[in-house]
Write a structure and sequence with these properties.
- The chain is of the alpha/beta class.
- The protein has three domains: 35-190, 3-Layer(aba) Sandwich (Rossmann fold); 194-274, Helicase, Ruva Protein, domain 3, CATH 1.10.8.60; 279-347, Arc Repressor Mutant, subunit A (Orthogonal Bundle).
- Helix content is 46%, strand content 13%.
- The protein is built from 14 helices and eight strands.
- A hairpin with a 2-residue loop joins strand 7 and strand 8 (340-347).
- Helix 3 (98-109) packs parallel to helix 4 (119-130) and helix 5 packs parallel to helix 6.
- The termini are far apart.
Length: 353
Amino acid sequence: MPNLFKDMLKGDESLFLDIGVLDPDFIPPVIEGRENEQQWIASCIKPLFLHRPGRHAFITGSPGIGKTLAVRYLLQELEQETQEIFPVYINCWKKDSPHKIMLALCEALGYTFVQNRTVGELLEEIAKIINKKSAVLVLDEADKILDESILYHLLESLLPISLLLVSNDAEYLSVLDDRIISRLHAEEIVFASYTFDETYQILQKRAHHAFVPHVFEKDAFDLLVQKAFALRDIRAGLFLLREAGEQAESHSSRKIQLRHAESALTILSLFKIRSSAGLNEDDQKLLQLIKNHSGITMSELYALYKRHGQEKTYRTFNRKIDVMAKQRIITKKTISAYPGRTTKVYYGGLLPS
């Protein structure tokens, strides 16, 4: 009689060696497929080593293709290389106001006398610290900054810096004030989407370190890679690998099979929901309007948006919609309508069938 339990995990066994490797914030020893982009960013920082002002850069590309990973890797390398350059990373999803950005800068620099201090006062103290050495300042999700004049003040006050602005919105610079543009004079570094082979290799290496050997059946792994490539999003691929592994463990399976991969695909929407969790308050309100009125036209949505007290220009409103669409939180569809064409907005990453 065959042993019905030989392919079942015991209570103290796991398919995972290191589940942290599948975390989107995990920084691997090598950033695959981004060598050229990292060299370019490093060249912007290099003058700081010679006690000269660094060059500034605008880093853009679709979500989930390694922009944040690349800059955080470089900051990690910089911290190990020298004590004369402050490496500072600020995510503007959460630190979206000038005051929050100043507080985050103070925290990164170890300056603690921040209570009841204005933005100008904090900037003066930050300048005293940074201008004695130099700094690489990364503002990730820069398009979430509520008052972009802070960029001008940073550039005016912090002289020996390299300012790296990261955004999924390729048009972000076009909405900045001309004074900021001329002062910034940023090099534009565009991250292209990964090829299928690059996507496969990246996820294969992560899986190699995350799971015990030989647990992934090939058809299961291939399905998840194909989905990640279709979405052009490595983070979605990492989510799927982890979920497939957890699905297999929940069934006490020693192998991650096709059925586990298919189950992971059915809950991919959870990943999309998490992607919207970092939206600032204004964007959350806009997203809620879209959710409540999915299928509404852009003009109708803008009218609702203003009616709910959001006095933004149509240009700013349109940019917010474009960013959400690129993040696949919402979907836009242009259709023919008398007397021309109109665009409808749908909640979620898929159009209704």
